[in-house]
TrEMBL record:
It comes from the Eukaryota. Residues 54-118 form a coiled coil. It comes from Dibothriocephalus latus. Residues 367-377 have a biased composition (Polar residues). This is U4/U6.U5 tri-snRNP-associated protein 1.
Length: 402
């Protein structure tokens, strides 16, 4: 194909033509390029029928190639009858050998059966096989019994069967139960529920053995555990030989009895009929205690002191001292000792004030009022007023007030 034909084909395909080296250059030496807007070539449309025919040809070529490869593999494989020559005589010989082996097997079987009948070997083997296949008590080891041991002991000999399991509980362990005991347990549960519904259940529910013996702590909302997790079931596991040792059960029962005996019960107290009236012994317990009553004294004012000074005698004794009295009176004698809570009156000649001083000690103190009366000759009412002021100052010095 020439360059011109190639360029024509490339133009149909939308490709740039090949450079043949005959491009004309301007006088200045710069190459001259064609304008794509003026010099362009239309790309021919795709022929769909031609594309389909090409795909069919490629598919046929692929099929022929695979067929050729398969035939080459078959030529390389060696046929089965390539090594041995199969003919009628060889086939007959094979059939004779098979018949001979069959007859020899029948003779051996007949001889062995005669020996078994003579020595009893077959019976021994059969007895051994039957003994090994028989279900005995040794096969019960590890099985659970979903009842209390006390119920089984009290009921005597009973028949235990395997408990029904759900379709999805294939991995669950086998459990032995008795139908009659299950019915009894359901009846007891129903009676207890009726008793609780009628209000006879009490405030405190019966605690289980683990809580009594301190093996676990009692939950706050333990009464809802049976509804969430299901009822708690008593069970035990069979030991070797299908037996169960009740020593552990007896030890736990003895411990429970000891704990219950140490606890207080309502039966420990004497039951008696309630009475509407208290007895003499009960009234002694309700004896009212005597309380100390605080002695409240009225505060003296200046008017009280002035009026008291006019009512008292003028002179007491030869010294001219007046008896103005003491602030506190002494305590009464042993015969007149007041009971607890009794109000003490300010009467008597030998009484003690709050500071612990008697009337005699109070009289030994120099009287400012007497001095003022004798020295200055003041009015007795004014002297009494001055005495009251002096007394109040003495009380303030001792830190006590009336």
């Amino acid at each position: 194909m020439s360059i011109e034909e190639t360029n024509k084909l490339r133009a149909k395909l939308g490709l740039a033509p090949l450079d043949v080296g005959t491009e004309k250059k301007p006088d200045d030496g710069t190459p001259q390029f064609l304008n794509s807007d003026e010099n362009f070539v239309h790309v021919p449309a795709k022929n769909i029928s031609e594309i389909r025919r090409t795909e069919q040809i490629q598919e046929k070529l692929k099929t022929m190639r695979e067929k050729r490869e398969l035939m080459e593999k078959l030529r390389e494989a060696q046929p089965l009858s390539a090594g041995d020559e199969v003919n009628t005589m060889s086939w007959v010989e094979k059939m004779r050998l098979k018949e001979k082996e069959r007859r020899a097997a029948e003779e051996r079987e007949k001889l062995l059966s005669e020996m078994d009948e003579e020595f009893g070997v077959s019976q021994l083997v059969q007895a051994k096989l039957s003994a090994s296949n028989e279900y005995a008590s040794r096969d019960l080891e590890g099985l659970k019994v979903e009842h209390k041991a006390d119920r089984l002991i009290e009921s005597g000999p009973i028949i235990l069967t395997l408990k029904d399991k759900g379709v999805l509980d294939e991995d669950a362990d086998d459990v032995l139960v008795n139908v009659n005991i299950i019915d009894d347990e359901k009846a007891e549960k129903n009676r207890e529920n009726k008793r609780k519904t009628a209000g006879l259940g009490g405030i405190l529910q019966d605690e289980d053995d683990d809580v009594i013996m301190g093996l676990r702590a009692k939950g706050v909302l333990e009464k809802y555990d049976a509804e969430i997790d299901g009822p708690k079931k008593q069970e035990f596991v069979l030991g070797s030989g299908g037996s169960y040792s009740s020593e552990h059960e007896l030890a736990m029962r003895r411990l429970q009895q000891e704990l219950q005996s140490s606890a207080h019960s309502a039966n420990d107290y004497e039951v008696r009929v309630a009475s509407e009236y208290f007895s003499a012994a009960e009234m002694e317990q309700f004896r009212k205690r005597k309380r100390k009553t605080k002695v409240q004294r009225r505060k003296l004012t200046a008017d009280d002191l002035i009026s008291a000074s006019f009512n008292e005698p003028a002179v007491n004794g030869a010294g001219g001292r007046r008896d103005h009295g003491s602030r506190r009176r002494g305590a009464p004698t042993a015969e007149e000792e007041p009971e607890e809570g009794e109000v003490v009156h300010d009467s008597g000649a030998n009484r003690v004030d709050r500071a612990g001083k008697t009337e005699e000690e109070e009289d030994r103190k120099p009287s400012t009022t007497a001095a003022l009366t004798t020295d200055t000759g003041l009015n007795p009412a004014i002297a009494a007023l001055l005495e009251a002021r002096t007394v109040s100052e003495d009380v303030d010095d001792r830190g006590k007030t009336f």
